[in-house]
Automatic annotation (TrEMBL):
It comes from the Bacteria. It comes from Sinomonas atrocyanea. The keyword Amino-acid biosynthesis does not apply. It holds the Pfam family Gpr1_Fun34_YaaH. This is Putative transmembrane protein. NCBIfam families: AceTr_1 (NF038013). GO terms for cellular component: plasma membrane. InterPro entries: AceTr, Gpr1/Fun34/SatP-like. It is found in: Membrane. The keyword Transmembrane applies. Keywords: Membrane, Transmembrane, Transmembrane helix. The chain crosses the membrane at residues 20-39, 46-65, 77-96, 103-124, 136-158. It is a multi-pass membrane protein.
Length: 169
């Protein structure tokens, strides 16, 4: 949901969604994902723990940048580009690990890597075209992630596989 709302702003579909995303960024994208990561850690799921905790802290750091305009201003486009580049690299190597999860998680990580890459290029170059592309890629990422969470909840609730996630072999 957090990715979807921010991506609506980045794609310029709902330009004001960038301000509306702040509560989601801190609480749903941030705190809730860190909590999910800790549960995954307790279950022994290294991938889930790393992904959820890392992206939870991504959203918390994004919130911090957005509520402190002096920080983003001092960082400038090159600093924000470096921030996004770090997340692009992290997401790319998590995509390699996602190959051993399932098809839906892999698709989410491929699209998220492309989203971060477009936003990184946009930040470094100052190109709004890449920001818009990153926004549209983020919308696709969010839809895939929603499908994945929907399938996981439905399959667990019904105690059988009703919606495919294309398990790794």
């Amino acid at each position: 949901m957090t990715t979807f709302v921010l991506s609506l702003a980045n794609a310029n579909v709902v330009p004001t969604a960038g301000s509306a995303v702040l509560g989601l960024a801190l609480f749903y994208g941030g705190l809730a994902q860190v909590a999910a990561g800790l549960w995954e850690f307790a279950k022994g799921n290294t991938f889930g723990a790393t992904a959820f905790c890392s992206f939870g802290f991504f959203w918390a750091s994004f919130w911090w940048l957005e509520i402190n305009p002096d920080v983003a201003s001092k960082a400038g486009s090159a600093g924000v580009g470096a921030y996004l580049l770090g997340w692009t690299i992290f997401t790319a190597y998590m995509t390699v690990a996602a190959i051993r999860t399932n098809g839906v998680v892999l698709a989410v990580f491929v699209m998220l890597t492309l989203t971060f890459l477009a936003l990184t290029i946009g930040a470094f170059s100052g190109s709004t075209i890449f920001d818009r592309i990153g926004g549209w890629l983020g919308i696709i990422t969010a839809i895939l992630a929603w499908y994945g969470s929907f399938a996981t909840v439905v399959n667990a609730t019904w105690k059988r596989s009703l919606l495919p996630v294309w398990a790794a072999r």
